[in-house]
Design goal:
79 residues; mainly alpha; 3 helices; 76% helix; flat; signal; DUF4398 domain-containing protein
Length: 79
């Protein structure tokens, strides 16, 4: 039974690393994509607010970082 548990942990770790390496191959997000993702994080933060204030604040901080990143992108870069 322990072998199955460790095999599962190994596979989970392997999948996580392979997915993270695939994510690094994706092109950078556009301004619109960043703003949409930031809005989604804000929505998640609003639903977490009642149960976990720290998680909500973390999500809001991520949303703010995405908005700041979107502001740096020139509109002419994505036409």
């Amino acid at each position: 039974m322990k072998k199955i548990k460790y095999l599962g942990l190994f596979l989970a770790g392997w999948m996580a690393t392979s997915f993270s390496s695939m994510a690094s191959l994706t092109p950078p997000m556009s301004k619109v994509d960043l703003l949409v993702k930031a809005a989604e994080l804000e929505r998640q933060a609003a639903t977490k607010q009642a149960t976990d204030i720290n998680a909500a604040n973390s999500l809001r901080e991520q949303a703010n970082q995405m908005r700041a990143q979107a502001v740096k992108i020139k509109d002419s870069d994505h036409k």
